[in-house]
């Protein structure tokens, strides 16, 4: 008995057996899972980890969604380089041509429409950003009579569809002699953009500490001086979002631009596009070229403002 015990204790343990404290003497011959020569080698899947099939399905869905999103502008760009006879062909660019762009720039009022749109958009953006930022700052920092009705007014104005307001606004513009004038579109676009942007700027200003305002007043700054010199530099992300939203509102709007402006020399770019495809003409090749030219400034503005868009939108959505 003593010899057998001594031989068992002094001998080396077989490969794959567990030794040491906490080991099970009765299962010493069972190899660990994944060890040399034993088990299937599969690692248990962690909680929330996707399997190969789920990962493939996710990436395939994202790829399909990306193709759907990219296809319309890509096909618009391709069609703009086709002659009129190949407009509806599924071939990419069999007969490459720049005649569409040459015709749009030199034989139409495109440059006039561009100038009209630029005047309306720049004026609307500058005035809209200023009014929205000052209104949002006042709602965020001050308490005054009529503050709550003003906030409700800004909110309720967002509930009306644009199409419902065309007739009453047209009657107002006609009564005051503002039809076929840029100021008609500027005022109209401000009524669309300012309420939403003011609410967004209020949410952004709520995230800026009030102590900054107090320090500015201690240094002798007026309320407007505090706003302009201290708060505005900190509000650049919110201002970028506000400016981009106002720009897009004025640049891409069609309903009011075609209702308030008549005659080719008064049209903006949105209204000018309709001259290519209407009940009398069907120049899709020219319309696609004009659409590409219109998209270029919007793309440049978005590229400039996109670094501020995410931080500005999330900051404006934060409740203080």
UniProtKB/TrEMBL annotation:
Pfam families (alphabetical): BPD_transp_1
Transmembrane segments: 53-78, 113-138, 150-170, 182-201, 239-259, 284-305
Region annotation Disordered: where it falls in the sequence: 1-50
Gene3D superfamilies xrefs: MetI-like
UniProt entry keywords in alphabetical sequence: Cell membrane, Membrane, Sugar transport, Transmembrane, Transmembrane helix, Transport
InterPro entries xref list: BP-dep_ABC_trans_perm, MetI-like, MetI-like_sf
Domain ABC transmembrane type-1 span(s) in chain numbering: 114-305
UniProt-annotated location(s): Cell membrane
CDD domains reported for this sequence: TM_PBP2
Principal subcellular localization: membrane
Protein topology in the membrane: Multi-pass membrane protein
Tagged with keyword S-adenosyl-L-methionine: no
Family stated for the protein in its record: Belongs to the binding-protein-dependent transport system permease family. MalFG subfamily.
PANTHER family linked: MALTOSE TRANSPORT SYSTEM PERMEASE-RELATED, MALTOSE_MALTODEXTRIN TRANSPORT SYSTEM PERMEASE PROTEIN MALG
Protein known as: Sugar ABC transporter permease
């Amino acid at each position: 008995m003593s010899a057998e015990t001594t031989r068992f204790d002094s001998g080396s343990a077989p490969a794959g057996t567990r030794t040491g404290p906490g080991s099970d003497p009765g299962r010493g011959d069972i190899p660990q899972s994944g060890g040399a020569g034993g088990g299937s080698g599969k690692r248990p899947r962690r909680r929330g980890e996707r399997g190969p099939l789920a990962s493939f399905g996710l990436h395939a869905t994202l790829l399909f969604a990306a193709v759907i999103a990219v296809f319309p502008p890509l096909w618009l760009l391709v069609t703009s380089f086709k002659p009129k006879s190949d407009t509806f062909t599924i071939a990419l660019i069999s007969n490459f041509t720049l005649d569409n762009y040459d015709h749009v720039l030199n034989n139409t009022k495109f440059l006039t429409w561009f100038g009209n749109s630029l005047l309306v958009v720049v004026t609307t953006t500058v005035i809209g950003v200023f009014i929205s930022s000052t209104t949002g700052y006042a709602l965020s920092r001050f308490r005054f009579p009529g503050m709550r009705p003003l906030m409700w007014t800004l909110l309720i104005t967002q509930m009306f569809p644009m199409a419902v307001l065309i007739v009453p606004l047209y009657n107002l513009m006609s009564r005051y002699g503002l039809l076929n004038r840029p100021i008609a579109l500027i005022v109209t676009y401000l009524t669309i953009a300012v309420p939403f942007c003011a609410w967004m700027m209020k949410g952004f200003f709520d995230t800026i500490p009030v102590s900054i305002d107090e320090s500015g007043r201690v240094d002798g700054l007026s309320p407007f001086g505090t706003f302009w010199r201290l708060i505005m530099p900190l509000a650049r992300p919110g201002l970028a979002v506000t400016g981009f939203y106002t720009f897009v509102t004025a640049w891409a709007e069609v309903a009011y631009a075609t209702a308030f402006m008549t005659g080719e020399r008064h049209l903006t770019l949105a209204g000018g596009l309709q001259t290519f495809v209407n009940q009398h003409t069907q120049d899709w090749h020219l319309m696609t070229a004009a659409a590409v030219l219109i998209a270029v400034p919007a793309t440049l503005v978005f590229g400039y403002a996109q670094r501020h868009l995410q931080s500005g939108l999330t900051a404006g959505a934060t409740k203080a």
